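FORM 12-B: Structure-to-Sequence Request
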């Protein structure tokens, strides 16, 4: 029904534009047509689940040292509140994890091993993250570090 009204208003406006008579009154704003979500490319799909995927990695490969190291407990029930938007102990004022911002996240620099914030995590000699696990952590931070 709304498209019908919209087209009607457009036809009225179009016919006004052809008139050579007096200046028309301000035109009413045409009603907004409903958004067609089937062709909307702005929809973001979130496919990384924090608790079952990311916290599970922290549990398996980080929790043996955290706590106590870095003043940080990475047990699944505590990891989120100890990471997201939390100021780092050893690298303050930087944050451990900044949602949507890998470069501002100390944890990302540590696990990707670029050396900007000291030793890589897990440290050399301990069970390393697989490329898939690294990708999961990257996607999680990129997608807004949700607690999902
Ligand atoms: C063998 C022990 C060990 C393991 C395993 C380990 N870490 Fe660490 N981690 C440390 C030590 C020691 C420090 C403190 C020195 C430093 O900052 O490098 C630290 C510091 C950190 C920090 C900085 C904390 C802060 O606020 O200062 C982060 C983030 C971190 N680790 C993340 C991780 C993650 C994520 C994992 C698992 C993928 C992990 N670590 C596994 C020993 C470990």
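FORM 12-B RESPONSE
SEQUENCE OUT:
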């Amino acid at each position: 029904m709304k498209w019908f009204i919209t087209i009607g208003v457009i036809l009225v406006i179009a016919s006004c534009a052809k008139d050579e008579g007096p200046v028309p009154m301000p035109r009413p704003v045409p009603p907004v047509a409903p958004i067609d979500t089937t062709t909307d490319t702005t929809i973001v799909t979130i496919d990384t689940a924090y608790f079952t995927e990311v916290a599970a990695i922290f549990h398996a490969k980080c929790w043996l040292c955290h706590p106590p190291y870095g003043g940080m407990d990475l047990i699944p029930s505590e990891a989120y509140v100890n990471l997201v938007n939390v100021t780092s102990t050893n690298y303050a004022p930087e944050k451990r994890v900044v949602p949507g911002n890998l470069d501002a996240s100390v944890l990302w620099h540590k696990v990707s091993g670029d050396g900007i914030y000291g030793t890589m995590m897990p440290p050399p000699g301990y069970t390393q993250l697989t490329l898939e696990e690294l990708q999961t952590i990257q996607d999680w931070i990129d997608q807004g570090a949700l607690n999902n």
